[in-house]
Design a protein that fits this description.
The chain has 359 residues and is α/β, with parallel strands linked by helices. The chain contains twelve helices and 14 strands. Strand 5 and strand 6 form a beta hairpin. Helix 1 crosses helix 2 and helix 5 runs parallel beside helix 6. The chain binds S-adenosyl-L-homocysteine and iron/sulfur cluster. S-adenosyl-L-homocysteine binds next to strand 10 and strand 12.
Length: 359
């Protein structure tokens, strides 16, 4: 049976080469070729013995998801639509900025959690992505982007903020994270690799224990009543439990604060009173708040908050010494902005049900 080397983290690759009768250090050489150099052709791996190259050609492939389409926005944001088989497709987005280049990757084809403001959530769920499909987004983006004029890699940061809930695909997400961090592969620092979660409390604890990277939590409401309405997962893991998990995460986190995302929905969660409620809620949790102007999509039930409302909300938080930034909308002319990623999902789930039952 042919294996895909993109499915292996360092440990998996060491196991694989040992089974081929090779010394474990060959795994490191292979990792350099595959991840650092972006090489998929074993014949080109010149410092491996010919016999090993032939063995690899018989037993393995290096296969990232196929690119279905590739578009660049006026502001330089680039989006790839990637084939996830059986009519499903997921998206990866590259966001260039002056001081860094961020790749936003997907972790699931669809999402089970059905947040009401999210286009992915509206599509339903098909399946978890494999390790190869997750790391393959970085692998193929690195190849497509090449190096910067200074000879550095274009991608300096990765955020798991594309389609899907990363923590609900834990077993594939963690090996992909390990490859991102591995010096023999992509060598990114833990501070530059971010998992964004809607707040799956027990899995926040597991991430802290097994692979603590930067954490972003999608909050979106200052109280349970509103959060229950916007994000059904809140009925299972309400705010008090979620914030307690955030504080526990800080013990091992690479940064000394948690970033909270707050999507700005006109007349729903953007009043001054709600900003004050948020300040009170976050007392005791070292936090940074990132306000995201709502990005519309077909059939959306919400509107974006006005510029003034966002400014007022931000001022209230800043006055209470909570560092607050407002995310610039990037790539919305190619539907690449936060929450607009829909890809193509053949819904096979009876979604929401699991969460609703817990209510
Ligand atoms: N499932 C994870 C990560 C993917 S969503 C999570 O929910 O955190 C990435 C971010 O985009 C989240 O903060 C999410 O709440 C936000 N988002 C979803 N829909 C949006 C929309 N329509 N406009 C702006 N942000 C949105
Ligand atoms: Fe899923 Fe995140 Fe979208 Fe909610 S916001 S439906 S958790 S992808």
């Amino acid at each position: 049976m042919t294996v895909n080397l993109l499915d292996f983290d360092a440990q998996g690759l060491a196991g694989f080469v040992t089974k081929l009768g090779e010394k474990p250090f060959r795994a490191k050489q292979l990792m350099h070729w595959v991840h650092r150099n972006g090489e998929a052709d074993f014949a080109a791996m010149s410092d491996l013995a010919k016999s090993l190259r032939e063995k690899l050609a018989r037993t393995a492939v290096v296969a990232a998801p196929r690119v279905i389409s590739d578009g660049t926005s006026e502001d330089g944001t680039r989006k790839w639509l990637l084939d996830a088989g059986n009519g499903n497709a997921v998206e990866a987005v590259f966001i260039p900025e002056s001081s860094r280049g961020t790749l936003c990757v997907s972790t699931q084809a669809g999402c089970t959690l059905a947040c009401r403001f999210c286009s992915t959530g509206k599509q339903g769920f098909n399946r978890n992505l494999t390790v190869a499909e997750i790391i393959g987004q970085l692998w193929q983006a690195n190849r497509a982007l090449g190096a910067t004029p200074k000879g550095e890699r274009a991608i300096s940061n990765v955020v798991m903020m594309g389609m899907g809930e990363p923590l609900l695909n834990f077993d594939n997400v963690v090996p992909a994270l390990r490859l991102m961090l591995d010096d023999h592969a992509y060598g990114l620092s833990r501070r530059r690799v971010t998992v964004s979660t809607s707040g799956i409390v027990p899995l926040i604890d597991r991430l802290r224990d097994e692979c603590p990277v930067a954490l972003t939590v999608s909050l979106h409401a200052p109280n349970d009543a509103l959060r229950d309405r916007l994000m059904p997962i809140n009925r299972k893991y309400p705010l008090r439990e979620l914030l307690a998990a955030c504080v526990r995460y800080l013990d091992r986190a690479p940064r000394d604060f948690i970033t909270f995302e707050y999507v700005m929905l006109a007349d729903v969660n953007d009043s001054e009173r709600q900003a004050r409620e948020l300040v009170a809620l976050l007392a005791g949790v070292p936090s940074k708040v990132n306000l995201i102007p709502f990005n519309p999509f077909p059939q959306a039930e919400f509107e974006r908050s006005s510029h003034e409302a966002i400014q007022r909300f931000s001022d209230t938080l800043n006055k209470a010494d909570i560092v607050t930034t407002t995310r610039r909308t990037r790539g919305d002319d190619i539907d690449a902005a936060c929450g607009q990623l829909a890809g193509r999902v053949h819904d096979r789930s009876r979604r929401v049900i699991r969460v609703e039952r817990a209510a």
